[in-house]
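Researcher: Sequence recovery benchmark, item below. Answer with residues only.
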């Protein structure tokens, strides 16, 4: 809001009765802001989007402990941020071109992925990452499960991570997951040819309002999070393309079952 309104951080610090460092901490998410100060800021930024403001006010409450806190000091903050992002999302869409989406992976399949990381992880480090990935999957089975759409390239479901038996078990689990009411699995067939995204894994987490949506991209150096409107628009278009080009959920299950049969 501040940057869109053309206000400096120094101006906002004076407006809210804070020093410049505290404003920076609020904007970076390391310090909270009271609902009263938030609405004062919104008024001076001429932001009249009440749905957006109400959603921001919800974020000003005291942080509550969550399951991923048990992994602090054991995993990178980026991996913890992914778990938190998924937990608070109202809907998740993902695009995977190399392997099955993390929220739909079996333990054996996930273990084979982490075992191939370079530099190599210790056995304990692999098991911690597998446990964390399995706990992330609770967003799909909790009392109010998140709506989930997984776009998976056909090559990803043909890759033999962990060997034939592990892949067979993974694909059977993928079929079972796709039959849940809140989960859709859509396969992009090989015959579709070229596709956007240059093979990058993509997670699009919808917030309570579109302005609080977040994109998470994988990289060799850890997750990257994007939230600028132009960036969000780009990846919404990417997902629209995947929706048009991918097989239906039923046809996707048929294709996966055919691969299982061939294994």
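Model:
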């Amino acid at each position: 809001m501040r940057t869109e309104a053309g206000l400096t951080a120094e101006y906002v610090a004076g407006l809210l009765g804070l020093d410049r460092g505290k404003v920076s901490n609020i904007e970076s998410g390391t310090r909270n802001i009271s609902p009263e100060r938030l609405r004062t800021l919104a008024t001076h930024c001429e932001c009249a989007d009440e749905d957006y403001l109400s959603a921001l006010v919800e974020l000003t409450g005291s942080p509550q402990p969550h399951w991923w806190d048990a992994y602090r000091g054991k995993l990178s903050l980026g991996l913890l941020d992914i778990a938190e992002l998924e937990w608070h999302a109202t809907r998740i869409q993902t695009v995977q071109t190399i392997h099955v989406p993390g929220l739909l992976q079996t333990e054996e399949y996930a273990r084979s992925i982490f075992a191939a990381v370079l530099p190599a992880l210790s056995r304990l480090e692999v098991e911690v990452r597998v446990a964390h990935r399995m706990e992330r999957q609770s967003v799909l089975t909790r009392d109010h499960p998140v709506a989930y759409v997984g776009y998976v390239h056909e090559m990803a479901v043909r890759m033999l991570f962990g060997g034939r038996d592990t892949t067979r078990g993974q694909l059977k689990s993928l079929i079972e997951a796709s039959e849940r009411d809140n989960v859709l699995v859509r396969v992009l067939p090989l015959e579709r040819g070229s596709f956007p995204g240059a093979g990058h894994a993509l997670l699009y987490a919808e917030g309570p309002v579109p302005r609080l949506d977040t994109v998470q991209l994988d990289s060799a150096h850890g997750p990257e999070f994007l939230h600028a409107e132009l960036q969000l628009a780009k990846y919404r278009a990417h997902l629209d393309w995947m929706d048009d080009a991918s097989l239906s959920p039923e046809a996707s299950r048929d294709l996966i079952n055919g691969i299982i049969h061939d294994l």
